[in-house]
Design brief:
With 196 residues, the protein is mainly alpha-helical. It has one domain. 84% of the residues lie in helices and 0% in strands. The N terminus is likely disordered. Keywords: Membrane, Transmembrane, Transmembrane helix.
């Protein structure tokens, strides 16, 4: 019988973060290339994305901050816990986000210039993206544990695994996303203004 605690300690962060990061990079490339091949459809896609945010009062920084933080933290949490289902959701979640970023880089880069796009994405993205990738890596690992338990009859305590990863989510992911949301709310708009 496998010792549960020993199994959980064998989480290979570099391996799973590497896999998720590769998916993210491929998705950005795919989004960029597909946009260059179908620019009109990509512009409509981006318009629909921004229209979905029309309910936000951007003149109210506190509201913007809360929406950004709650949206990112809830989605990152779902990406992690939904990894139970063989890691399908976290991989799909990261791919979709990478694809959208790739489309934005092409569409808005052509319209506003790559520098302004970089300024609008990088200040908070350097924290937000790694946090989402780490949360999704946890989810992918949970998917592996679930697979081993169901199909390999391994004695793995999934409740213990979930408890450990929720603890890491609260102590690692949440603080990073909190800082990223503050930057996106108060710093990024200023930088966009300065470089416009």
């Amino acid at each position: 019988m496998i010792d549960n605690n020993e199994k959980l300690e064998k989480f290979d962060g570099k391996k799973y973060v590497g896999i998720i990061s590769l998916v993210f990079i491929i998705a950005i490339f795919f989004g960029y290339v597909s946009s260059s091949l179908q620019p009109d459809q990509s512009e409509k896609f981006i318009e629909s994305v921004f229209e979905s945010l029309s309910f936000i009062d951007f003149n109210n920084p506190l509201e913007v901050f809360m929406i950004i933080f709650l949206n990112n933290s809830s989605k990152a949490f779902i990406a992690m816990v939904a990894g139970f289902f063989f890691g399908i959701f976290p991989v799909s979640f990261v791919f979709l986000n990478g694809y959208i970023i790739g489309v934005i880089i092409y569409v808005k880069g052509s319209e506003l210039g790559i520098l302004r796009v970089a300024v609008s994405l990088l200040p908070h993205g350097i924290l937000e993206i790694p946090a989402v990738i780490i949360a999704s890596a946890y989810g992918l690992y949970l998917g592996k544990l679930f697979y081993l338990r169901v199909f390999r009859s391994r004695s793995i305590d999934m409740k213990l695994a979930m408890k450990e990863f929720i603890k890491k989510f609260i102590t690692v992911i949440i603080p990073i996303l909190l800082i990223a949301a503050l930057i996106e709310t108060f710093v990024t708009p200023y930088l966009i203004y300065r470089f416009s």
